[in-house]
Design a protein that fits this description.
The structure holds two protein chains of two kinds.
Chain A: H1 2-38, H2 40-44, H3 47-50, E1 55-56, E2 61-62, H4 65-96, H5 99-113, H6 117-136, H7 144-168, H8 172-180, H9 185-196, H10 198-214, H11 217-222, H12 243-251, H13 259-297
Antiparallel strand pairs in A: 1-2
Helix pairs in contact in A: 1-13, 4-7, 4-10, 5-7, 6-7, 7-10, 8-9, 10-13, 12-13
Chain B: H1 2-18, H2 20-29, E1 35-40, H3 42-58, E2 63-67, H4 71-79, E3 85-88, H5 94-103, E4 107-121, E5 129-131, H6 132-140, E6 157-161, H7 166-176, E7 192-194, H8 197-206, E8 210-215, E9 224-225, E10 227-229, H9 241-245, E11 252-260, H10 265-274, H11 277-285, E12 289-290
Parallel strand pairs in B: 1-2, 1-3, 5-10, 6-7, 6-8
Antiparallel strand pairs in B: 3-11, 4-8, 4-9, 4-11, 4-12
The chains are: A mainly alpha, B alpha/beta.
Chain lengths: ~300, ~300
């Protein structure tokens, strides 16, 4: 009897262990595959060609700078929209809203998170982009801004649900302590609750930004996909082409093993490294914050 | 597209290998007639697949295998006598004819459909007609305002299909480079590359600044097609089935099938059927222009 129990225990532990390790294995395999398919690009196209400002693969122009800057500007725009909105909504749901309001808001936000991005893309083409063109008097409504707004909308539910969980996890005693010291509600939120939930809120932001930079369908539909170097402030109001949209649009027809094919994988590699960088930066901030908290407590 | 070809190949392979009794019997009695090998242009491949599918469902004893690969590949295979019908979106070249003579092949040309590209603008745009040179200058970025071609003072927003589309390449060669091989003109960098015909149509429909192009069969009635003159001072011609067939419309080409000698047996039946109203209806459904005058070759 006892023996079978330990056996069962052993198998279950191993199963859980395997599923834990499998995540590392998959990431490693994916990265290995990206390297294998993407690195030959460095041999086939010169670095100066890769970091050029013209992307026109069918005539062998493989400058990825427009795509890189396009992705960055759309993601930064989306972050600027999603972070204040998402955290504001999370604070409202967790700290301010009455119970019945919270019961309505939370499922609604989660529903928004479940919207397929292609549907948002359609809304973007048919409603948002004409509106932006007329409202801002631009030549076309298919701009980085349109993409940013929709991506912000896509990232908000992620930010809200993670940040709200983190705020919820802050012990009630923290708030009561602040109120007892005479802090207003706003002071409590800004000085006590939010800092206490800092690591969770940062995770929320990171996941939101990650969602935005990896999003493909919506961006492909509404940003116009013109490979123009996007480094001026005005670039936000003109069409851009992102890395994800480029891969999605061109991978289907590219001849396997050609320079173009390798360059597309190289772009995938760059995307992977960017999201890895975002992850590492965020977790190091979280880690440092934790250490500091431990020092104060000890 | 490649997937479609692959799937079709697998499918036809399965059919031929899984139906031993019927197909073997037919092949035995009437060897080269029952199986038609059809290869060539990627522009035509979807059309050829649609034809083959319909024809095979009406004639269960005929097997047609369709592959793409490009016009050159198709003609080369015809010259090597490995296919019965070669698809080409261009006329056979002189050097290919020499090669044919050397191989004892007599390529016979059949015009099976026509392909025309309409240049479209928003109905609010007062511009009705442009020369080919003007369209080239618009897309290469030399002209940036509609007032330069007799329109209102509005910026021009250029819309194009993605670079992997055959239509994009054809437009680049025929319009931007005006058919000249030495000309290395490229699309202006800020040309919006949209992933689908629908994307172009949606943007042109709501944006009076936009200019786009699309296969004649795909243009909806509520958009305005531009009348095009081949050279300055020439007559402006609107695209239509009639003007494409009498060659007065500039951005159009014939689509060909080549056979070795005058077709006989099953190949002749198939080509005759292709020029029938039923098969030409499929041409129209796929956005091409039906070939009105059947087989011009002697």
């Amino acid at each position: 009897m006892e023996k079978s129990l330990t056996w069962r225990e052993f198998i279950i532990t191993r199963l859980i262990q395997t599923s834990g390790y499998s995540a590392i294995l998959f990431v490693a395999l994916i990265f290995f595959f990206l390297l294998r398919e993407g690195l030959p690009a460095l041999g086939e196209a010169k670095l100066s060609e890769l970091f050029n400002i013209r992307w026109y693969p069918i005539e062998n122009y493989f400058g990825i700078l427009p795509l890189l800057t396009g992705s960055l500007i759309v993601t930064i725009g989306a972050g600027l929209i999603a972070v204040p909105f998402g955290i504001g909504t999370a604070v409202y749901i967790s700290e301010i809203a009455p119970r019945w309001m919270r019961e309505i808001l939370k499922p609604l936000v989660e529903l928004l998170g479940g919207l397929p991005s292609v549907v948002l893309g359609f809304l973007g083409i048919l409603v948002l982009s004409p509106f932006i063109r007329v409202f801002l008097d631009l030549p076309t409504g298919l701009t980085a801004l349109t993409g940013s707004i929709l991506l912000g909308g896509i990232a908000v539910p992620t930010v809200v649900s993670v940040a709200e969980d983190a705020l919820d996890a802050v012990p009630r005693a923290y708030r009561e302590g602040a109120w007892a010291l005479g802090a207003t509600r706003w002071q409590t939120i800004w000085r006590v609750t939010l800092p206490a939930a800092k690591s969770g809120v940062l995770t929320a932001i990171m996941l939101g930004v990650g969602r935005a930079i990896g999003e493909t369908m919506t961006v492909m539909m509404v940003t116009g996909n013109a490979p123009v170097l996007a480094i001026k402030l005005g670039s936000l109001f003109s069409p851009v082409r992102t890395m994800t949209a480029t891969i999605a649009a061109e991978m289907g027809e590219v001849a396997s093993g050609s320079t173009h094919y390798h360059v597309l994988f190289f772009i995938g590699m760059v995307l992977f490294l960017i999201s890895l960088g975002v992850n590492i930066a965020a977790s190091s901030v979280v880690f440092r914050a934790k250490k500091r908290a431990e020092r104060i407590l000890s | 597209m490649k997937h479609a070809i692959a799937i079709f190949l697998i499918f036809s392979f399965i059919i031929t290998s899984c139906g031993p009794t019927s197909s073997a019997a037919v092949t035995a009695s009437d060897s080269q007639a029952a199986y038609i090998e059809n290869k060539g242009s990627d522009t035509i491949v979807n059309l050829a697949l649609a034809w083959a599918e319909k024809y095979q469902s009406d004639h269960p004893d005929i097997r047609i295998s369709v592959t793409g690969g490009g016009s050159g590949t198709g003609i080369a295979s015809l010259l090597n006598k490995t296919v019965d019908i070669a698809n080409a979106s261009r006329k056979i070249k002189a050097e290919e004819l020499d090669q044919a003579k050397a191989n004892g092949v007599d390529p016979v040309e059949h015009i099976i459909a026509r392909d025309a590209i309409a240049v479209i603008v928003n109905p609010e745009n007062p511009v009705n007609e442009l020369t080919l040179q003007q369209i080239s200058d618009i897309y290469s970025g030399k002209l940036t305002n509609w007032s330069e071609v007799g329109g209102e003072d509005r910026p021009i927003v250029r819309l194009s299909r993605e670079t992997n589309s055959g239509t994009h390449v054809y437009f680049l060669e025929t319009v931007l480079r005006l058919g000249s091989k030495e000309d290395k003109t490229l699309f202006s960098m800020d040309t919006l590359l949209l992933p689908s015909s629908e994307g172009i149509i949606a943007e042109v429909r709501q944006n009076p600044n936009a200019i786009g192009y699309d296969g004649l069969g795909y243009v909806p009635k509520d958009l305005k097609m531009i009348a095009i003159a081949k050279e300055t001072g020439g007559a402006y011609v609107l695209p239509s089935i009639a003007t494409v067939n009498d060659k007065t419309y500039a951005i159009a080409r014939d689509l060909y099938m080549y056979t070795n000698g005058e077709p006989t047996g099953a190949v002749k039946d198939y080509l005759d059927w292709i020029l029938s109203p039923e098969a030409q209806q499929i041409v129209a459904d796929l956005g091409f222009v039906p070939a009105l005058n059947p087989n011009p070759s002697p």
